[in-house]
Amino acid sequence: MFPSMPQDEPWDADASREIARSGGKRPSAGFRDEPESSSPPDPDETDDEFEEIEEVPVRRQLSLAIAGFAGLLAVGLVLGALTSAPDSRLPYAIVLFGVQLLYLLAWVMALNPPAPGPTAAVAAVAALVADYLSVTSVQAALLPLVWVTLAGFAAALIGQLFRAQDRARLTDSWRTTLAIVAGAAAYALPILLTRQETGTQTVIVCAVAAGVALVVARAADAVFPKPRIAAQVPRGVAGVVLGAMLGTLSGAALGSFLVFPFTPAKGAVVGLTAVVVAHLVDLAVNFGQAGRELAGDTPTFWVARHMQGPLGAFALVAPAAYALSHWFLL
Q1: 77-122 pLDDT per residue, tens
Q2: Taking a C-beta distance cutoff of 8 angstroms, is the pair 205, 324 a contact?
Q3: In contact, 99 and 76? CB cutoff 8 Å
């Protein structure tokens, strides 16, 4: 028998057996005799991971104010179309240019494009040129307004190339820039439509239907905002449905009073199209605002934020009215 050699290493027999049982890992010093913690997770930590989304309250006075603003826009579009004569379209253009400036204020502050100042200036110039061409052009054609919109969009993109922080956002925000420039220029279309055969009547039906839909929907939200469209969106389904129904009904009623080619059925179709477009834009603005707030973006100026929906709705109703006047009523 050879004499046993003393073990200078810390790996004695008991430690080797422990390592084998633990899968080959050496226990940390000072914690060999402590059992593993098998306590259940803290319920507060699990609750934090699945927090319930808080429902945003609906402010009655604000809903009524937005309804009133939408009604004023509709009345302005209708009265301007009714009072536009062949030699007196300049007052209508001046009123619409004021609406275009409001549109730029609301949408630039809400969407915050790269180089917001130059983008707004370029869009204002494009809107002014579109108004001028709508009033003074020999033929009431859509193509010149399209070229003005594209030129304004290109100029706005060029203005966003000078600073490095603006160039970095260019690929993600070009749609925002296009919406700002095109929406401002679209308000020139009602002037163009008043110079065409069925355009004035189409503007009246679309503006009345969209205005009734937005006013009823917003006013209903102040009284009965149920059921909620989403927890973070202070809008109710009942108001949207009721507004769509009454807006379509108003279009059908106007169709029974207007002259050829309008009929109650055609008035209902035109009114329904305007109502759908207006509601989609208005709700898209609400969802966009809720998304920015959830993302932690700084809220925009509250007046501009709440004007954005009606202004965007009527901006998109204008091209819809032009399309209906040329592809459905003729």
Answers
A1: 999 999 887 778 899 999 999 999 999 999 999 888 999 999 999 9
A2: no
A3: yes
